[in-house]
Amino acid sequence: MSQPFLKEEVSEAVHKMKNNRSPSINQVKVELIKYAPNCIHGFIAEIYNEVAKTGIYPSELNDGVLCPLQKSELKIGQLENLRPIILHSTLRKILAIIMMKRR
Q1: CB-CB contact of 11 with 41 (8 Å)
Q2: Against a cut of 0.85, is the pTM above it?
């Protein structure tokens, strides 16, 4: 990691995210972070910097909820007619957006 995470990067990433999406296990919706005071974005950047420095991360960055969704127009109930969707936490989504922009 050559450069630290900045509050501005977190703010930009959060504002790119769409509202009214399903939250993960922790039930933190994007809107809670998007419309929070800027100091919250700074705290999130500090969390990411601490993870980058120590390698120790909160479980929210690693956990997700696996949801099987029925493929449209296929017979209901058969395993091969389901597709897996993983709902990641909002913190992980923000980090992913920042990392994609940096590459």
Answers
A1: yes
A2: no
Nearest CA to 90 out of 46, 26, 35, 15 is that of: 26
Token pair listed for 79:
């395993």
Counting other chains too, the contacts that 91-96 makes at CB distance below 8 Å and 24 or more residues apart are 91/28, 91/44, 91/47, 91/58, 91/60, 91/61, 92/24, 92/60, 92/61, 92/62, 92/64, 93/17, 93/30, 94/10, 94/13, 94/14, 94/17, 94/33, 94/44, 95/48, 95/61
Q: Quick one: pLDDT at residue 1?
A: 59
Diameter over CA atoms, the chain? 50
